Amino acid sequence: MRVEGTGAARLEAFLARLYVDSAARAEFLGDRARAVSAAGLTEAECLAVVRLDAGALELAAQSFTHKHLLAQRRRAQRALSDRWLWFRRALSWLRGA
Amino acid sequence: MRQLSSTDRVGLSWRTEIAASILQHLDRIDVVELIAEDYFEAPLRRVRALATLAAQVPLVVHGIGLGLSSASPVSEPHLERLARFVNRVRPESWSEHLAFVRAGTIELEHLAAPPRSAATIAGTLANLRRVRAIVGTLPALENVASLLDPPGSEYDEASWVSAIAVGSDASLLLDLHNLYVNAQNFGFGAAEYLHSVPVERVSVVHLAGGTWLETNDLGQRRRLRLDDHLHAVPNAVYSLLEDVAFRAPQALTVILERDGRYPPFSELLAELTLAREALSRGRARRAQAQVRDAS
């Protein structure tokens, strides 16, 4: 799994991909050593990442997916509510005109 | 920014679903917290309406999408929008999380605990300098909850948070459920954490609830705590609030966060009462200790 960035940013990108990309997660859990060496992490980072708790990682990924959907729903609700506000204002302007 | 309060206050986070109930019970709510990102795409009229709310109750602003704690710079467009919102609403204070929310082209849309390293301390401090230059003020910095102890961490959480708070001279937003979650998930003492962080820098406290999840890694069953804001505040969190009130010399603003599965509003008001009682117990213990020390 190749990731963007350099230094500490590369580790953040690696973790972010594990949290949101199920294929990258499966690749990592299937062969951890290969996945971390392909990511270009430092030796110390590789040692830390290969020890990640698989169960906790899956729960964290589920939590990120849930929050992502929640954020999308909230944005849609806000957009709908703003459009409704705009429609009511337009209607009252037309009635007044 | 407006003048900060000199006494402890207890309030709620503003959510559309409970907005009407909040407005009906402002006699029992001292302060309201707004999520900044909720207003980024809102019509100007809705943002201007916040002035009406501000006339009725003190407001604080909470950011959730800046991604301060990263080796990478914060998103400039996000920072500009946040600055516009904060400067338009002119809240008493504002806050953000010690988390990363994006990495390269990946948008997490949620808070991730970064590796607690010298690089993320330096990155956070650099980001806070950018924030101060654009917004004009620093946010109160919030500790985040996590299911995973970030790999590549060189510091324990209390030392990492303290280094950033002291290095930036920012205040802290202490989320006591996040602290409880991490203490449970990673096996450290929440009370010891409170002794290690500069409690005199805490200006805001968050309370929330969560739930227990089960994980099975290589046949080893483990319980992990999730901070979901969908459940009542556990008693252990009120005990931590009492400890903070005992230790902190300054006034605290306590915000109850609830993001869904809303109970009858009377239950949220009861949680605010429990928070006030915990604050009172902590302040009474503090007063007794001061009398003891003086005699």
The major sheet of chain B is characterized as: 8 strands, parallel, barrel
Which band does the percent of strand residues of chain A land in? under 5%
What global shape of chain A is seen?
rod-shaped
Bulk shape of chain B: globular
**Which regions of chain B have little confidence, pLDDT < 50, spanning 5+ residues?**
none
Number of strands of chain A: 0
Which class of secondary structure composition applies to the elements of chain B?
alpha/beta
Helix-and-strand structural type of chain A = mainly alpha
The multimeric state of the shown protein is heterodimer
Q: Per DSSP, what share of the residues of chain B sits in E-state strands of 2 or more residues?
A: 15-25%
Q: Determine Rg of chain B (CA atoms, Å).
A: 19 Å
- SS element count, helices of chain B: 10
Extract low-pLDDT stretches of chain A. Answer: none
Question: Secondary-structure blueprint of this entry?
Answer:
The complex is a heterodimer of chains A (97) and B (295).
Chain A lengths: L6 H14 L1 H9 L1 H7 L4 H8 L3 H43 L1
Helix pairs in contact in A: 1-2, 2-3
Chain B lengths: L8 E5 L5 H6 L6 E5 L8 H5 L1 H7 L2 E4 L13 H14 L4 E4 L2 E4 L2 E7 L5 H18 L4 E3 L14 H12 L3 E4 H11 L3 H7 L5 E6 L2 E8 L2 E8 L7 H13 L5 E4 L8 H30 L1
Parallel strand pairs in B: 1-2, 1-12, 2-3, 3-4, 4-7, 7-8, 8-9, 9-12
Antiparallel strand pairs in B: 5-6, 10-11
Helix pairs in contact in B: 5-6, 9-10
Q: What does this molecule look like?
A:
The complex is a heterodimer of chains A (97) and B (295). Chain A is rod-shaped and about 70 Å long. In chain A, 84% of the residues lie in helices and 0% in strands. Chain A contains five helices and no strands. In chain A, 29% of the residues are buried. The model of chain A has no long low-confidence stretch (mean pLDDT 85). With 97 residues, chain A is mostly helical. In chain A, helix 2 crosses helix 3. Chain B is an alpha/beta fold and 295 residues long. In chain B, helix 5 packs parallel to helix 6. Helix content of chain B is 42%, strand content 21%. Chain B contains ten helices and twelve strands.
